[in-house]
Amino acid sequence: MLVTEGAKPHRLDRWGGTCLDDAHRHRHELVCEWLRHEIGMRAHGPSDPIGLIVAASKGDLAEVKTLVEQDNINVDASAFDGRVALHLAANEGHVSNCHAHTSRVPNTPAS
Fold this sequence. Notes:
The chain is mostly helical. 46% of the residues lie in helices and 0% in strands.
């Protein structure tokens, strides 16, 4: 109803987030799906990896795939502490997420 009454779904809040960011952060999958499919929203952008990092740390492989494949979130973008989604997936023991991350990038040695 809010959107049909003129609410602007792409408006940013004071922290620079969208309603999709909030729905994702609070794990409201149906709201995320509706915003993506009915409104055409995408995650905030490739420079905002927080949703990906949260999904990876929780082992939410479906959301990781959605954010990477549909929203084009950069798998190597880091959070404020320098860690990327792969760090959090590994830290929490989510093997399937680790595999999903490493299968998308070339095998490069650590520097």
